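Lecture 7 notes. Example A: sequence first, then its structure tokens.
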Amino acid sequence: MSIQALSPEHARLGLPSGLGPPEPIPLPAPEEVERTPGPRARHVGRRPWLAGLTGGILGTAARPEPVRRDPLVTLVHRISFGFNLAELEHARALGFEGYLEEQLEPEAIDDSTLEADLVRFPVIAMSPKELVEQFADDNRDAYRQLKVALLARATSSRRQLRERMVEFWSDHFSINHNKGILWALLPEHERTVI
């Protein structure tokens, strides 16, 4: 290793003297290189190279087996608001195609339990005029009711794919409830636009 003189920048930074260039990385042996047609050659694998680069610390372990995921579990996870065992069992009973077809037709799914629960939140059925008249002094209660109803639908609805789409489009066409009277448009916006 050759010793280089310190540059003024190295001296200013207080770097120790006698530092030279790093050791060169050894090239793979010719038997580790597979020749392919054309001017390029590619390495047989990264593990031998990584093992050589790190002195055998890395790259010597056997490759882990790839994780095989159940397609039905993936489907339930992606089109629902949080995985739950009851939803998975329902999906298993219908099968992959049956569950997906059911979720693609949300009006055919009986969601009467949730609809009965949403009666506690009268705000979601009000017009903007009714909201302004009833909640003129404190709009936080109206906004809180709307958000709690939204969470109840997301977590309890059997129409999970629909609720995921409602979330997506609500984020895309969002209304800032802190800007003037816009808070009064939220329920109407949710019902008609989203």
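Example B, a different protein, same format:
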Amino acid sequence: MNAIPIEGRPLRLVSERLLLRDLRPEDWPAVHDLRGDPAVAGPMGLAPEGEEESREWLERAIRHNRLLPRQAFNLAIILRETGVAVGWIGMSRAGEGRDADGVYELSFALLRDYWGKGIMTEAARVLLSFAFERLEAKRVVADCLPQNVASARVLEKVGMGYEGPAGACLRYGLDDEGWRHDDAAL
């Protein structure tokens, strides 16, 4: 299904200000800063994590990145100018079965000091482009808690439309036709 083979290769995506690359063990301090900060974890519906929990999450994310065929893309968000990891963005195949074929789910978190600078919008656009153009995704969805207004705004800025409630969350989505239409307008 991939337009360009990506199996077994580390993923690196570049934009004007950012490098998105597979998570590595040395990303643990930034991962823990994300997952341990109540201001970041809370809007994601998580309790702040301790060091051991953050290490375990990072190990699982790296392990999932290595599964073949690749089902998940857990990426560090790196500022190109400084080389500093400032967040995480991830995408994985959504569910199982025929209805989930070609559907991916987007998630993300950004260190508090970098909020409001357009970084997550830029990172999400890069990952959506990868999903639709290289993975030939049919659809990308994302869920966020109703109180997470900033994440909802990021999803709207990248062209994802509100679709309704999904459990305790709000569901946003974008299909490949919508992406091509938005991409042509840029």
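Note on Example B: The longest helix spans residues 51-66. The CA atoms of residues 110 and 130 lie 20 Å apart.
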